[in-house]
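Supplementary Note 3. Input sequence used for the single-chain structure prediction.
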Amino acid sequence: MKTKHWIAFIALGVIWSSSFLWIKIGVQEIGPTSLVTFRLLFGALSAAAIVSYQKASWPRDWKTWVIFGILGPLSLAIPIFFISWGEQTIDSAVASILNATVPLFTLIIAHFFLHDDKMTINKVIGLVMGFVGIVILLSEDLLASAHNNVIGQAAVILASLFYAVTAVAARKYTKHVEGPARGAAPLITATIFMLLAAPFTGEPFKIPTLPITWIAVLWLGVLGSGIAIIINYYLLHEIGPTRTTLVTYIFPPGGLLLGIIFLNEQISWQLLVGSILIVSSIVVVNRKPKA
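The predicted structure, written as discrete structure tokens, is reproduced below.
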């Protein structure tokens, strides 16, 4: 990857590292339906503001909007709802491990549907190394969370599969769309979908009353959705789905580092060994094979 790609990749990882924590905070007061709706709404507004500020052009043909009409709900509304719903019964550490299956799913799917993102020995070794690193990194949390709800875990794994499939589809079917509009468009369609679907979830719509919940909603909306999705779509088309979804490997060490910096948590051997494996995996996946 080029320097600009590494900058975007790291920025995306930093933004998304705390997402599971903010989701856990948000669902405690307003539940998954309200949280996802607010998140997507603020994400769509902030992404549209970026498109307007950069004077970028929106898609003008109905076929492209049909594509985004499908990608929006499948890549954003539905998987985000599954994760938010699942985190009502499972710990954020477990959710981040299960979410780290995204690049593993993507590796397989991209191999069969994209000509420029094939499975290589470097990718396989790197992705397995990274996943093992995440399991080691969060091993203490896993042992302490043995009581976690199986249905909640299944919801997060299903969300990961949605992310993988739609990452490949986005690369394949949105190449002709340029600039930040290709990230803003699915946010708009996902928001419309969520507003229409919310009354049928059987969950009352709630407006946050606690300041910490508003912080969670705004962080997840403006940064975690609006800015992050634009960066995500940029990377999907620049470096491919497999390398882009590898950003999920940054989430667990990022979350633990935040705990060390702001909560005075202790550095453990799991953090050191797991982080080394994760960083090494990213290097291995991005290393160019010899001719």
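The longest helix spans residues 19-53. The mean pLDDT is 86.
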